[in-house]
Design a protein that fits this description.
Strand order of the largest sheet of chain C: 1-2
Radius of gyration of chain B: 26 Å
Structural class of chain C: mainly alpha
Helix content of chain C: over 70%
Shape of chain B: globular
Radius of gyration of chain C: 24 Å
Number of strands of chain C: 2
Strand content of chain C: under 5%
Chains: A mainly alpha (384), B alpha+beta (639), C mainly alpha (332)
Oligomer: heterotrimer
Strand content of chain B: 15-25%
Shape of chain C: globular
Number of helices of chain B: 21
Order of helices and strands of chain C: HHHHEEHHHHHHHHHHHH
Strand order of the largest sheet of chain B: 17-21-16-20-18-19
Distance between the termini of chain C: 22 Å
Number of helices of chain C: 16
Distance between the termini of chain B: 51 Å
Largest sheet of chain B: 6 strands, mixed
Helix content of chain B: 25-40%
Structural class of chain B: alpha+beta
Chain lengths: 384, 639, 332
């Protein structure tokens, strides 16, 4: 038996702040709210920030399509069918004129049946800005004529060319955004609600409910989307107005999307509910809804956000696919899907490539959603 | 088995009225030359030589005239089709009929060597001696007898009664076999449709390969063996098996013998059907070559939407199906690179696109409106047909009503133009006169019950032209205070909504045969069928002899059906012509269908190697059988 | 474990039964039946429709029977391995599907391979080089495929392949090889045609794969055992492959369920646009023409594959991660 070594014990109370002195930055970091943290992390994903800006602009523009589009949706010019894009120039014969276009005239070549356009480079026609042009009804209610940009007096302004009826492609694209961009939002809302609720309870409770949910999901996932789309679209009454058809399509898209989400939620929950902190919460008498919503869900929010952001572009593309199959929105409604379906022919590819323009906004928006989702996912990560 | 006495045999010719001057090919032909591709089989003894393969009196096809030349046998014609089912088009293109149309639409003998018609109700056909099926078995009156006695009159096969096409006033003709090459059909009353049916694109077949089908008929094959065959084919019973094996028109059963120029050799389903030449075909050219010239026809099956692209890439040697006028520029642009020519043929349809106001619509207010001729006239006057023609059809069509075309001897310009000019003022006046004077804030008229005059035009959505044309019409109808909404659905929905009366207006093509002669029955001008979208219920009424549909309660429409009945009763040319004109006039004046543009050309792509295809022609289903009347068996491939 | 398997199998059978009802209902949902489509088709061409023949066909096809009875016949047939009869082709369904199945499997197998080959390196690189320029660039490329409307891309590529290489438009081989026995020329022709659909279908699948691999790998990489491993001086490559990569593969294993049917019938729309001789366009056509036994039996076949696939993935997951309790349900 030896004496214990003598050692010093401070009689002062322990103060961790005294030994670990935070820098101001560290302090800010540790005291920041969860949302602030997310924002800081989100900023680091440059592509996501750019994407968020693009999306914000796109959705803002949806609010003002009538003003943004140089022409009204139904305006068509028989004198300019299949007109190629009209370039905007700044200098005429070496002299600065400001943004202007050269007028062009249509001539039908009777041998090839091609409509040929010859620009008249002697007459520059300046564009008008913040001007009065085609009359429209703002959101179908308020009448107005104000446009950001208008074609020159007595001239035309087809930045992206015209289609077979002489309608301005740019204006159609802008109007089409209103339909195409909102389809995904409504659809995902339905899908998300269903997916989290059903998947969450199935994963947490297990047992009969889980079994039932599992089987339902299995059944829905066992069928290719296509026949479900076809059957549900066929079930939409033929005499529905375009607006109703639009909502019908979004609901179909939403109804078919939730199983994936629910399955993901369930399998994660199955694993997480065995964690100690879940047990602790349960022992303290927390309700299942509280445990799921407060303790378990945040754990894989990243995964949910990844799924959701991946779903929105999926729905935008779903709309185009449905239109292509002739099952979704159809002309005279203008959506990107409808425009793409109209471009789905060899003429557009070979002779009128500007009809393929709708691909660009679809690609941009879908990519933006993807990167935006990536950024969100990284930011919402509960670890580091 | 054969009821005819031989005493008749010599006399019938004397009694018969010879219907056509171009009937017996009296021109002499050179000695037959053997087809190169068959020479080997002939030398080996597996195939008889050519003079034993063609009938004793083959059909000599003269190849004189512009762009026609005697060709060389050999080669393959490749074509594209949108669906496997479309291979029946080879039967249409091959156009081998008992009697068929020539290029001027006269009915002339083809499979038969001669035929006679007495009183419009007795028809006698004389076959070519030595004519054989594609498997070498003689083609005789036995094949007609089999169809008649063992199919039409068989209690099992015709369980639901004989085919409607054979009935005149509900009665079958008397059928007689005169001798091995002669048969006769006699109705109690005249049957003006008979020869037209026989010459049709989808013909009425009076014969079957008896030696082939007997194997599947309970009368000729013992039960046990038949049972085995039924089982093997997964059929329900022998009748179903017989039905499955009887594919003359469907053309998808390689083992079934045929009389057509090319014989299918590919089992369904496939992506590529090869049709080989029929070594026993009955037509020859003046140089002594057996037709067809082409050794084979290949039907490649592909997605119909890809066909214009594939044709533009030079993957078809002869193509019109699945091509439209709007494909012309892109086809033309690759003409030189891919070695073909794009020709434009005339269309035989009454209208490329027509609006059909449904006079049987359920809604009482609308029914009253569309039954008012003034309303229909106003709608017609409110369409800028020239604009439609310019925008959608390159100005190549004719802005006109849905009526007969200039190719028809019955054509009169007024039928095309009556109520068909663009006259907003007159249209508005007509609508005002009807009392539809009240308008809403946007300038749309109100119906008597206060609703806006909003016409939902339903389309089958099969081609984008429809919706485009409707966009143009929407804009001009706005000026007469009528609102147009488009609703795109499908063929089936369109049909069922028309018959149920839910549909107010629809689009479809105009008359199928817009190049009729006075001898062609004017059934399309009267309510006779339930697929007539302007009066489906009245059509159904006539079709079912009053059992279904609705009785006609409109005197002008009743006059059309009276006209039609009168036409059926007479065989007098002048009378028939008068009836036709009366009906055409009634239609033009009452605007029962609103035709928009007619005579829109059909692009026909022909490989530079393929000869004897006319540069201009009439591309029509019936009469015409598309390429059929231009005899694709005489098309040949230059090496 | 055995009890679990048995119970799982029993529920599988039940699931399939429900699916069969659903499939049948889906096919019946659009207005009319095969014969109305058939009639409309004939009338559109101008061909005559003999009501007596239609009546005969209606009885022949059993379409005059009540729907419930039609369903019972069909299911009874399925159980005995009889897939029914295709009205459109006038052939047993098995004959119609037969040939197309092989080409579908070739195509879709190639596609899945393509997806894995593109997605794996990109996913791993982008997770390990987070926010680098390379990460942005490579994910951008990988994602481009999902963003492009693939039916239009298909048409454009078909046209370009024809103009540049003279490849015949559409199909999986030059027409002259169709229905011919396999030969070197045929195989080369298939390869020549295969790349367009593989690229188009494959590109739309890579993005999803990259995204999930990256997300899961990032989750794993931030776990403490990785830090521990790194602290112990494990080489980065080995550290990555040993556990995180393996763990991040979990979701892919649960994907087997959807992978199996995909190999048989992937990307219907693109296949239809390109007129591929695969099962996709056949399914689309049969649904459109309401060729109900062809559509129904084929869908059931796909469903069977999915259900079996899910079963396999469940079992695999259970083996891989014991935390996923097989018994299910929370024991209090």
């Amino acid at each position: 038996m030896t004496e214990p070594l003598p050692h010093f014990v401070s009689s002062k109370p322990f103060d961790p702040a005294a030994t670990e002195v935070f820098t101001a930055a560290q302090e800010r970091y540790y005291l920041a709210s969860q949302w602030q943290l997310m924002w800081w992390k989100f900023r680091r994903h440059k592509l996501a920030v750019v994407s968020a800006a693009i999306l914000l602009l796109s959705y803002l523009s949806v609010l003002f399509v009538e003003v943004l589009a140089p022409y009204e949706l139904s305006t068509r010019q028989t004198s300019h069918l299949y007109a190629p894009p009209q370039a905007v120039h700044l200098f005429h014969e070496g002299r600065f004129v400001g943004p202007f276009v050269y007028p062009f005239t249509q001539k039908l070549n009777m041998t090839t049946l091609k409509r040929e356009y010859a620009p008249d480079t002697t007459r520059p026609q300046p564009l008008r800005f913040l001007c009065l042009g085609d009359a429209y009804k703002f959101w179908g209610a308020i009448e107005g004529r104000l446009h950001i940009v208008c074609p020159p007096e007595g001239g035309t302004f087809f930045l992206l060319g015209t289609d077979r009826l002489g309608r301005d492609m740019l204006s159609r694209l802008i109007y089409g955004a209103r339909i195409s961009l909102t389809v995904g939002l409504i659809g995902i809302a339905i899908s998300f609600l269903l997916g989290i609720t059903i998947g969450g309870f199935a994963g947490y409770y297990g047992g009969l409910f889980d079994n039932l949910t599992q089987r339902t999901i299995e059944i829905l996932k066992s069928l290719p989307e296509l026949p479900l789309w076809m059957a549900l679209s066929a079930a939409l009454p033929v005499n529905w107005s375009p607006v109703l058809v639009y909502f019908g399509i979004t609901i179909i898209l939403g109804l078919l999307d939730w199983p994936g989400l629910a399955r993901a939620v369930r399998s994660k929950l199955l694993a997480l509910r065995e964690e100690d902190y879940a047990l602790a919460a349960r022992l303290m008498g927390a309700s299942p809804g509280h445990i799921i919503g407060r303790h378990l869900l945040p754990n894989f929010m990243s995964h949910l956000i990844a799924s959701a952001t991946l779903s929105i572009p999926g729905m935008i593309l779903g709309e185009t696919a449905l239109s292509f199959l002739g099952l979704g929105l159809r002309p005279p409604i203008t959506s990107w899907g409808v425009m793409l379906a109209e471009a789905q022919n060899i003429e557009s590819v070979v002779l009128y490539p500007w009809l393929l323009w709708p691909m660009v906004p679809v690609i941009v928006v879908v990519l933006a959603f993807n990167f935006f989702g990536d950024g969100l996912r990284d930011a919402a990560d509960p670890y580091h | 088995m054969i009821q005819a006495s031989s005493a008749h045999r010599r006399t019938w010719f004397a009694l018969a009225v010879i219907a056509s001057a171009a009937l017996a090919p009296c021109a002499a032909w050179a000695a037959m030359t053997e087809t190169p591709v068959l020479a080997e089989a002939v030398n080996a003894g597996t195939l008889p030589p050519v003079d034993q393969r063609v009938p004793e009196e083959p059909l000599m096809v003269p190849l004189e005239g512009e762009g026609l030349a005697t060709g060389q046998p050999g080669g393959s014609i490749d074509m594209l089709f949108g669906r496997a089912k479309d291979i029946r088009m080879l039967v249409v293109y091959g156009y081998t009929r008992l009697v068929g149309y020539d290029r001027s639409f006269n009915i002339v003998p083809d499979i038969v060597s001669t035929y006679g018609v007495k009183e419009g109700r007795e028809f006698t056909f004389k076959l070519r001696k030595g004519h054989k099926w594609s498997d070498g078995v003689p083609f005789t009156s036995e094949d007609f007898r089999y169809f008649w006695e063992d199919m039409v009159l068989d209690p099992v096969i015709s369980e639901d009664g004989p085919p409607d096409e054979l009935l005149v006033n509900g009665k079958l003709p008397k059928f007689e076999v005169i001798d091995a090459e002669t048969v006769r059909y006699t109705w109690e009353e005249p049957n003006p449709n008979f020869l037209i049916q026989l010459a049709g694109a989808q013909p009425l077949y009076l014969y079957r390969p008896a030696h082939f089908l007997k194997k599947f008929h309970a009368k000729y094959t013992d039960e046990e063996k038949l049972e085995e065959l039924v089982e093997k084919a997964e059929a329900r019973n022998w009748r179903a098996l017989h039905f499955k094996m009887d594919r003359q028109y469907a053309n998808d059963l390689p083992q079934m013998p045929t009389l057509d120029p090319w014989v299918n050799t590919t089992e369904s389903p496939s992506e590529r059907y090869v049709f080989k030449r029929n070594p026993f075909f009955h037509r020859i050219d003046a140089a002594g070559n057996q037709l067809p010239y082409a050794d084979q026809v290949v039907a490649n099956i592909t997605n119909g939407d890809l066909i214009p692209a594939k044709v533009g890439a030079g993957e078809s040697m002869l193509q019109a199906r699945n091509l439209e006028l709007k494909n012309f520029p892109v086809l033309k642009s690759a003409e030189e690179r891919n070695g073909y020519a794009v020709n434009l043929w005339r269309s035989g349809r009454g209208s490329q696109l027509a609006l059909f106001p449904n006079l049987n619509v359920k809604d009482p207010v609308w029914r009253q409106a569309v039954r008012d001729a003034r309303f229909r006239r106003a709608l017609s006057l409110g369409i800028d047909r020239n604009e439609v023609n310019e925008v959608v059809f390159f100005g190549l069509g004719v802005a006109a009503n849905n009526t007969v075309l200039a190719d028809s001897p019955l054509f009169k310009p007024e039928y095309q133009t009556l109520w068909a000019d663009y006259n907003i003022e007159q249209a508005n006046a007509l609508l005002d006169e009807m009392g539809l004077t009240e308008r809403n804030g946007e300038g749309f008229r109100k119906l008597p019950d206060g609703r806006i005059a909003e016409i939902v035009v339903e389309t089958a959505g099969e081609d984008t032209n429809e919706t485009d044309v409707l966009v143009l019409i929407r804009d001009s109808w706005k000026k007469i205070g009528i609102k147009l909404l488009t609703n795109v659905s499908t063929r089936e929905v369109l049909r069922s909504r028309a018959t149920s009366g839910d549909l107010l207006m629809s689009t479809w093509t105009g008359y199928e045969n817009a190049v009729p002669t006075a001898d062609y029955p004017p059934f399309e001008l009267a309510p006779t069928r339930d697929d007539q979208q302007n009066w489906p219920l009245w059509g159904l009424h006539t079709m079912t002899n009053g059992k279904g549909g609705e009785a006609i309660d409109d005197p002008t429409v009743q006059s059309l059906i009276d006209d039609y009945q009168a036409w059926l009763r007479t065989s007098d040319q002048a009378e028939r012509t008068a009836i036709w004109h009366h009906m055409l006039k009634t239609h033009a004046d009452n605007v029962y269908s609103i035709g928009i543009v007619s005579a829109v050309p059909q692009p026909v792509v022909v490989s530079n190697k393929l000869r004897n295809v006319p540069k201009e022609g009439l591309y029509n289903w019936d009469p015409g059988a598309f390429f059929g009347i231009y005899r694709p068996d005489t098309f040949w491939i230059e090496k | 474990m055995l009890a679990f398997l048995l119970r799982r199998l029993a529920t599988m059978a039940l699931t399939l039964l429900v699916i069969s009802m659903l499939v049948f209902a889906i096919i019946q949902l659009p207005e009319g039946d095969y014969l109305t489509t058939y009639i409309a088709d004939l009338q559109a061409q101008g061909e005559n429709v003999d009501p007596k023949k239609i009546e005969f066909l209606r009885r022949q096809y059993g379409l005059d029977k009540p729907v419930v009875l039609q369903y019972v016949y069909w299911v009874a047939g399925l159980v005995q391995g009889d897939l029914g009869y295709s009205f459109e082709f006038d052939k047993p369904v098995s004959t119609v599907v037969g040939d197309r199945l092989w080409l579908s499997m070739i195509l879709n197998f190639a596609t899945v391979l393509f997806i894995y080959m593109v997605a794996f390196p990109i996913g791993v690189y982008s997770a390990t080089h987070k926010y680098s320029l390379g990460d942005y660039g490579i994910t951008f490329l990988g994602f481009l495929g999902i963003a492009t409307p693939n039916f239009l891309l298909a048409l454009i590529l078909l046209y370009l392949a024809n103009v540049w290489f003279g490849t015949s438009i559409g199909g999986l081989m030059a027409p002259e090889y169709i229905d011919q026995p396999w030969s070197l020329g045929k195989a080369l022709s298939v390869l020549e045609h295969l790349w367009v659909p593989v690229v188009v279908i494959g590109l739309s699948g890579t993005a999803g794969m990259i995204r999930r691999l990256r997300a899961n790998l990032l989750d794993e990489l931030q776990k403490q055992y990785v830090t521990t491993g790194r602290a112990k001086g494990l080489a980065e490559g080995r550290l990555l492959v040993k556990y995180p990569l393996r763990m991040s593969l979990n979701p892919f294993i649960s994907d087997i369920g959807s992978l199996l049917p995909q190999i048989v019938s992937g990307s219907v729309i693109v296949s239809a646009v390109m007129s591929l001789p695969t099962t996709g366009p056949m399914l689309l056509d049969s649904l459109r023409s309401q060729d109900m036994y062809l559509a129904g039996s084929f869908l059931m076949f796909l469903a069977l594959l999915t259900v079996v696939g899910m079963f396999v993935s469940d079992v695999a997951l259970a083996l891989l991660d014991p935390r996923i309790r097989l018994e299910g349900g929370l024991k209090r």
